[in-house]
Design brief:
Blueprint: E1 2-5, E2 13-14, H1 15-21, E3 30-32, H2 40-44, H3 51-63, H4 69-79, E4 85-89, E5 93-97, H5 107-125, E6 129-134, H6 138-147, E7 153-160, H7 166-173, E8 179-184, H8 188-199, H9 202-207, E9 210-212, H10 218-221, H11 226-237, E10 245-249, H12 254-264, E11 271-276, H13 281-286, H14 312-318, H15 323-329, E12 330-334, H16 337-351, H17 357-373, E13 379-383, H18 391-398, H19 406-412, E14 419-421, H20 425-433
Parallel strand pairs: 5-13, 6-7, 6-9, 7-8, 8-14, 10-11, 10-13, 11-12
Antiparallel strand pairs: 1-2, 1-3, 4-5
Helix pairs in contact: 3-4, 3-11, 4-5, 5-6, 6-7, 12-14, 16-17, 16-18
The structure holds pyridoxal-5'-phosphate.
Pyridoxal-5'-phosphate binds next to α12.
Length: 435
């Protein structure tokens, strides 16, 4: 299978090349030329399969020219060595807990899959790659941990100074070894823009082999389709066959795009809910306006503070550029910080369950969608981060004390090693060239 660039000016390439390139040379994002549909018998018998079996089946059509089944199985087994589960909240909504990986956020799925695949290939080919990642927090720690000490790979992370939580910063900026962190004087969009400029800079690309690992990378996107199917498998195990609605807390829209991909492969899904904070350009589009990117606004759900969501072009491609089809399949909701806090309080009070601010937005959207549309479908609401990562927000709202697991506590004690840098491209380029 080949992958085309959404800008249509670069040639289609196989999966591993798309993974290494990150962004296509023409600045577009890679997408599969065709969406493989898996047989009905697969979707009907998900309940008999484990997560890693589901993952292998879904990945195979994209990767079969480049890996064999044994390698794929090993990658899946190594990458997804942590649990995931549904937690019922009330009678209709179930929370899909995606935060049991090493950095306690759903980004571990994409980052670990990609790192394992990279490592499998780098060991065979013997050439060094530098991975550039712009992060608003969770991507950075997931990627840093996924690639830590992986041979043949250097990682350079850029994050906005002062705009990530202390724990996020400690998790990514204290590792050292093959992980370098740059603290950028600016916002997430500045970091993203620096990385994008580097990828289209011919001189720099001739000088070093660059690759990306943020949510634009096709190897991050693919595994984000697996857990949607896993949720359907869990519903089947509960004896529920009605098509679910998925509510997805969204920023750069990689997570939601993974869900749409699964649906296009044949996974039963009634509808998707795009839940955002006040950075609501997609929500606005879904309600009938133009798509008009703007600067991001800082919120308490900071991993979703994205003003120009990169993956929107992929959603367009998946729906053959039919705005009407997109608006039929995806419903948008957005909430401010006060409503987010209210949602955290409600769920704690009514269900004795703590959720992070991102998850709270997704949950609120799910509840409101059910209420407005009087639907009877099961609703899967994605939990994107462990509440402990946002205890500064959650504890005062719920009057509770969240214990910090020992494996997190140890990060808080480590020495920060990040390098401060301005938001101009030349300075960043010079830094890369000087290494
Ligand atoms: C990254 C992130 C999101 C947003 O995911 P996208 O794929 O960028 O839409 C939501 N919640 C948390 C906790 C995240 O880390």
């Amino acid at each position: 299978m080949k992958f085309f660039s959404t800008n249509k000016k670069s040639p289609p390439v196989p999966f591993l090349e798309a993974m290494r390139n990150g962004l296509a040379p023409d600045g577009g994002l890679y997408m599969p030329e065709t969406i493989p549909s898996l047989p009905e018998s697969f979707w009907k018998s998900l309940k008999n399969l484990s997560f890693s079996e589901i993952a292998c089946e879904m990945a195979r059509p994209f990767l079969e020219d480049e890996t064999d089944d044994d390698e794929l199985k090993k990658v899946m087994g190594d990458a997804f060595n942590f649990p995931l589960n549904l937690h019922p909240v009330g009678s209709q909504i179930q929370i899909l807990e995606l935060f049991h990986g090493p950095t306690l956020a759903f980004k571990d799925f994409g980052a670990r899959f990609m790192a394992r695949l990279f490592s499998a290939k780098a060991q065979k080919e013997n050439r060094e790659v530098t991975i550039l990642v712009a992060t608003s927090g969770d991507t950075g720690s997931a990627v840093a941990h996924g690639f830590y000490k992986v041979p043949g790979v250097q990682v350079c992370l850029l994050y906005p100074a002062g705009k990530v939580s202390r724990l996020q910063e400690q998790q990514m900026a204290t590792l050292g070894e093959n992980i370098t962190t740059l603290e950028v004087d600016g916002v997430f969009d500045d970091c993203q823009s620096l990385v994008k400029q580097a990828f289209v800079d011919e001189k720099l690309n001739n000088y070093m082999q660059l690759s990306s690992a943020n949510s634009i990378n096709i190897a991050r996107l693919l595994p984000q389709s697996f857990y949607y199917a896993f949720a359907v498998a869990e519903l089947q195990r509960q004896g529920i066959s009605k098509e679910p609605v998925f509510s997805v807390p969204s920023g750069n829209f990689g997570n939601l795009t993974g869900g749409i991909l699964a649906m296009k492969m044949g996974m039963p899904a009634d509808r998707f809910i795009a839940a955002t904070n006040v950075n609501d350009v997609v929500t606005e589009f879904l309600s009938g306006s133009e798509f008009s990117p703007r600067h991001s606004i800082q919120t308490i759900s900071n991993a979703m503070d994205v003003g120009n969501p990169s993956n929107f072009v992929r959603i367009k491609a998946l729906f053959n550029h039919s705005d009407k089809a997109i608006r039929r399949q995806i419903k948008g909701f957005s909430y401010d910080d006060d409503t987010t806090r209210q949602s955290i309080r409600d769920v704690y009070k009514n269900h004795d369950y703590l959720i992070c601010p991102h998850t709270a937005i997704g949950y609120r959207a799910a509840a409101e969608y059910i209420h407005q549309n009087n639907v009877s479908n099961p609703v899967i609401s994605l939990a994107t981060a462990h509440p402990v990562k946002f205890r500064d927000v959650i504890e005062p709202e719920t009057d509770s004390k969240i214990d910090v697991p020992e494996r997190l506590e140890k990060w808080l004690k480590r020495k920060k090693r990040s390098i401060p840098i301005g938001n101009g491209y030349e300075e960043f380029k010079e830094f890369l060239m000087s290494r």
